[in-house]
Amino acid sequence: MERFEGVVAGVRERVEPDSDERERLQQVARSLAERTEDAITNLPVEADVVQVGSTARGTWTSGDRDIDLFVRFPPELDRETLESYGLKIGHEVLPDGHEEFAEHPYVKGQFDGFDVDLVPCYRVESATNIQSAVDRTPFHTQYLEARLDDDLAREVLLFKQFLKGIGAYGSDLRTEGFSGYLSELLVLEYGSFRALLGAAADWHPPVRFDPEDHGTEKFSDPLVVIDPTDPERNVAAVLTPENFARVQHYARDLLDNPRESLFFPDSPNPLTPEAVDGRIADRGTAPVAIRFDAPDVVEDQLYPQLQKSLSGIADALSRRGFDVLRADLFADETAVLFFELSVSERPAIERHDGPPVHVRAHAAGFYEKYADDDSYGPFIENDRYVVERRREFTTATRFLESETVFDSALGVHVEQAMREGYEVLSGDEIGVLAAEFGRELARYFDPKP
Amino acid sequence: MERFEGVVAGVRERVEPDSDERERLQQVARSLAERTEDAITNLPVEADVVQVGSTARGTWTSGDRDIDLFVRFPPELDRETLESYGLKIGHEVLPDGHEEFAEHPYVKGQFDGFDVDLVPCYRVESATNIQSAVDRTPFHTQYLEARLDDDLAREVLLFKQFLKGIGAYGSDLRTEGFSGYLSELLVLEYGSFRALLGAAADWHPPVRFDPEDHGTEKFSDPLVVIDPTDPERNVAAVLTPENFARVQHYARDLLDNPRESLFFPDSPNPLTPEAVDGRIADRGTAPVAIRFDAPDVVEDQLYPQLQKSLSGIADALSRRGFDVLRADLFADETAVLFFELSVSERPAIERHDGPPVHVRAHAAGFYEKYADDDSYGPFIENDRYVVERRREFTTATRFLESETVFDSALGVHVEQAMREGYEVLSGDEIGVLAAEFGRELARYFDPKP
């Protein structure tokens, strides 16, 4: 336990902003709020500004430079006007900013060295009356501000850094992990980082919390935390079983063997093409990959689409007898769907079971269909006709290169991108992926919990 | 229908014994019966002789040279005495005969150019009181003799020849088809070969007959014919779903396209080793075979044991990722278990799913077991640990050559024979099997219903 405290002290030193950094952020936030209020006065509407997110709640880690300001408009305002007012204010406050799109368009930009999001929303009475998903955010900040004292905020920092270290921080659709809000609610629930770890090590899903004891819905997620500001919402809805299990694994690991490196892991060294070849030779597998230009959409669209496409093509490969040992996706300038196969070739023929012979009309149709073609059979096994017919694809590569690959379940932008052109890599061509994805391949070939 | 009748007339011509042949057989049977009665008089016991089987019932086809005589002893006689009396009579009647073993030992020998079985049994009151399976046989003959007139017997000949032609005649454990008794009961049921074919073409299993309406048991076989002499017995118990379906298929075929060749098919020409290689190349498969000296046991023991071993090893191959497209067994001097594989090689590693991470003690044990060995992982997928561990066998051949093959379910005599030595053939070594099993391989590579 002493060792645990020692590790925690070391982590605190690295993640807690000192008073200078804190003061500096407060100044910039105040100045931004003032500029925003000034911009509001030029509009024929009443609105106010609230700072939200971890920098508003004192749960940000040293080096974070994100300031989130929400401008709250009256709920009667139509959405189009809200959006135009929001962008007008955004561009006034952040003259060098650019527009991004979440639920509405908003302006993102730099100010005094900080990354600022300026987001319009509706000032609704309660989180259950929201008109847009972002309307909920100010309620979260309000709820936590009232409950997280400085000590708890310091515990939150530890948990967040732990989640970052193990790769489970963030409710974006690439990570599908723990949001800041969820992390804070969990620390609030258990009272300390240490207590939360001890509990998580023993969690037995489904794990359910309802801080305000007002939940009305059933959820099938492994972790259910009913939003204190909205009885119908599971704050952990995005969390995957993997990340749930990951937190359990590393909670046990950290308690057994406390160490700072879990909070600040080194990135793996990128693999060279030769090293990739070496791993494949050691594993004796047959890798194939599809590469195409990454669709130009935000990550929250890109990753779910890549994931869907990866599963869709993996299923299509498996159905054709090309057994997938493991698959992964990589995205940067290009996007790669990577399949490591146990079986990449199949015979010229495949077994195809027909109907039971006693189902006369159906059976006769099957028999006639295959009796005179170049199949082997039909013959009888058990009570059925069986035929050994020609396979459409005898290698995985030929399937991936064919038009038939588009019959797989693909994300819409992925399909578009692939239709514009893709290449299929296999065998020792796989090494070339190391140029762009050496680090990802290093992680792939040394998989950790 | 006219064409059907023409075909039937042609078949009759070939299978019906003429009066000379019939007379000759009767003479020999009478003379054998007399010799047997004489032999009985030398014994201190009362016994009688009955002729059984198709030659007794006039349902034998031209060229059959089997005469079966049963000597019936009083049921009080102990089994040992019955056996010694039976053999004594047998050797007296058939001086050149030799002993064989079914339920009891009995004598088999030649007499005047006929193959004679001389079998001792008990003269019980009814077939339900039998002390030995062979005691039932005289009751079958008695039942059918009273019901099969000459016209029906001629129909039986057609059905039997049809079954021989399609390979479904015989209740031995190699064929697992229709016994003579079963064939005769079915003709009795439907009244003619033609009516039986028409019905069989439309059978929908389970098909159940109970000629004496006295059945007491439930059976799960596709065809259930309650023995008219024994309410607890299904005469078709040995019939496989394959042979049931086969009769359906060829009944439809013969009615659609009547032809004599179905009754008298040509044996296929044996394949040469080169032809075997050619078939394999066309199919693109990976054949492997185990060959050993055929165990010296009767066919009714040999074939079930080979079948069990074939399934046992096929399962073991499949479990290790060596997908079996089709398998078959051949036996003569040597016995061969033949597996045509779709996949004969696997990577150096295999995926192995561990427990869910939340099952703490079990999960921790799994993690520790694999964390520091040469496996990849453990990592997390869904809620479980997964590891990619080294495979024990990366080729089917190496598995078959290993001691581990004996962990498969094997027939006891097959296991003994294999322990004395076996060879594993694969790839282009398979062609050598054509020397002994060219015809079997021809059937294998041109499979028919």
Folded structure, characterized:
Two copies of one chain form a homodimer. Chain A has a five-stranded mixed sheet, with helices on both faces. In chain A, strands 10-11-9-15 form a four-stranded antiparallel sheet, with helices on both faces. The model of chain A has no long low-confidence stretch (mean pLDDT 95). The first copy, chain A, is 42% helix and 21% strand. Chain A folds into four domains: 15-141, Beta Polymerase, domain 2 (2-Layer Sandwich), CATH 3.30.460.10; 150-262, Poly(a)-polymerase, middle domain, CATH 1.10.1410.30; 273-345 and 394-445, Poly(A) polymerase predicted RNA binding domain (Alpha-Beta Plaits); 349-390, no CATH class. Chain A is of the alpha+beta class. In chain A, a hairpin with a 2-residue loop joins strand 4 (105-111) and strand 5 (114-122). Chain A has 15 helices and 15 strands. The two termini of chain A are 24 Å apart. In chain A, helix 2 crosses helix 4, helix 7 packs across helix 8 and helix 8 crosses helix 9. The relative contact order of chain A is 0.09. At the A-B interface, helix 9, strand 12, helix 12, strand 13 and strand 14 of A face helix 9, strand 12, helix 12, strand 13 and strand 14 of B. Chains A, B: This is CCA-adding enzyme. Chains A, B: It comes from Haladaptatus pallidirubidus.
